[in-house]
Structure formats: structure tokens, C-alpha cells
Amino acid sequence: MVSAYKLKQDLITRAKSLGFDVCKITPASLPDEIGNKLEIAIELNRHASMTWMESTLERRKTPTAMWDEANSAIMLGMNYGPDSNPLETLNQKSKATISVYARNRDYHDLIKGKLKTLAGWLASKTGEDVKVFVDTAPLMEKPLAKQAGLGWQGKHTNLVSREFGSWLFLGAILTKADLPSDNEETDHCGSCQSCLDICPTNAFPAPYQLDAGRCISYLTIEHDGAIPIEFREAMGNRIYGCDDCLAICPWNKYAQETSEIKLKAREDLSAPDLEELAQLDDARFRAKFSGSPIKRIGRNKFLRNVMIAIGNSQDQSLKALALQNSKDESPIVRAASIWALSRLEEAASFANMRSKALKSETDPSVLEEWNRHA
Length: 374
Prior knowledge:
The chain is of the alpha+beta class. The protein folds into two domains: 4-227 and 239-265, no CATH class; 273-374, no CATH class. 43% of the residues lie in helices and 9% in strands. The strands form three sheets. It has a four-stranded antiparallel β-sheet, with helices on both faces. Strands 3-8 form a two-stranded parallel sheet. The chain is elongated and about 80 Å long. The model has no long low-confidence stretch (mean pLDDT 96).
């Protein structure tokens, strides 16, 4: 019979052959303090509109609350390090900034297939049941990854690795098999708080705490309806996600570009022109973002974000597109376009547009936006 140690080494070797950069093991349980912190965050409404976090709270607190027969958690990381500093595109105001993780294939699909292959191999070797997870179930991957030694949760609450910096996708395999565990990683943030200082919307009420309702990643991806006005200017040209707190981390000096071709940035998504994106109808949106995580937010929320970026662009050549989209079928696109026009158009011309639009506009949210700029 293969020893547990030999099985673990074979597992790591197989994981790396599948493209994972790191594989470590920890017991399939988390200390009570982790669940307690999550409960407090939800009580403070720091999950914003993500009601699924509240409804799955008890199952989320520890893996055994979701699967009581689990003994070990195999935590895997895949490096998605970019080939350049993602903060550089923030100054290109007529272009869009897309979060590094969304510049090519959807990592959920990529990693889940590899996890299933690895989990199937493990099940055949141990005869024990397995379950795989990629950010789609009530499992707290980051605390488990810290406990397994992949890295630590920085003051921005994201995982930081001494070897890969900020750029690790996480996947997990829970198994009934009892495998040798690795040592937990310690916190190496020290006195640094660069990630907190750079946040455009002050989304961190304190170190190691995140208020999702103020986070640009949440606002551009999860939030429905109009972007709250207090955050629009701070969004800049970020149209899908935000990497500021990740990219500024000093530990990125050890990071390296991903070797996975499906995670390397597509040329057309590295710094796309706002002019092109503002003209996407639903069919072209779906075609352009086929296989991309961006597709899941839908064309209307995407165009809402693009119009906010146009409003921040100071590019007068984009006024015509803002006007065009102020007549879009989607209220959230129209409302964001009105805000963009209010930033780009001269006052008298804008007042004339408003006067004409109010004769036919019926949607309350769009009327509110027109009246905001009366």
C-alpha cells in the first residue's frame, strides 16, 4: 500500500503536470474565529447586495459544515501574473482597464477541468470520495489557502504569496482521505499599508476588512442598477474589476508572468478603446466575450461601466457615443450615458438635450439622472 507521504508527493507532481503552480494540504476545517469574522462582516452589511453570503453563512464557516465527512483540503494555486503593471492603463483615459484575471479565458472553466482530473486520480488511489471547488460554492478558499501555506491574507483581504505575489487563482479539493498537512503561512505585511492607501473608493474600513459596497470590483461586476454617484469619478476607466490593491503590493517584485497560455492577456483586452466598446450591441458583446468571465455580467451592465469611463475620459470625441447610448433600450445604459454627457457636453447643449429627452422618458431611474443635472 502506498504511504500517505508518497501519495502526497505523487499528488503534488501530478498537480504541477496539470499546470498548477502550488499544491498544499490542510485539515478540512477552519477555526471558529474565521466564521465569527464573517458573521460580523455580514451583520455590518459589508457584503452589500450579495445575499448569497448571508444565506450560506453557516455552511461557509468551515468546510465540514458543508460536508461533514471531509478530512483533508487540497489547496491549489495557479499563477496568472500579468506581463506588465496593470496600473499603467489607468492613465490612458480613452481606453478601458479590465482586471487582469478577466483578460482571457474564464478561470473557473479552466481550473475546474484540471481539478476534476486531479480529483479523479486521487479518488482512484485512495478509494475515498472527493469534491472540487472553484469559487462557486460556500467554501472560504482564502483562509484555507493561508492555513495550507499557499500565502497569507493581506490587509486587503486577498491572498499574497511570497513566490507569486498577488496573482494566484485558487482551487480546492475536499476529500475523505486523511493526508499529511502543510504548515500555515504567517503574515508578512508588516507595517505596509500600500493596498489600503491606493484604494480609489476607501473600501477598507480597517486593515483586513473590506466593505464590498465601496469596492470597484463589486460595483462593476456584482452591483445591479446605476453606479452610486459618489463612486463614479473614482472608477476612472475601470470597466470590469479593479486591481489597484493587488498591483501595488511590494511582494509582486517576486511575481512572474503566467505560463498558462489561456491566462495570458488577449491583445484586444489589454487596453481596449472605449470608442469600440461603447458600440457593442448584445450579439457583438456575446461574440467578443465568448469564454470570458466578462460575459456573465451581460451587455447592459458592461455598457453602463463603459459609459462611466467615457464620462471620466475628458475625450470630447466620445460625446457622440454618449448621446447615442442615452437613447439605448436599457435604462442603466441610458442613465450612465446621461452622466457621461453631463461631464463632456457644454451646459447649454446639455440642457437642450435634457429638455428633449424629458418629453419621452418614462423610466424613474433615468428621469432621476436627468433631473440630477438640471
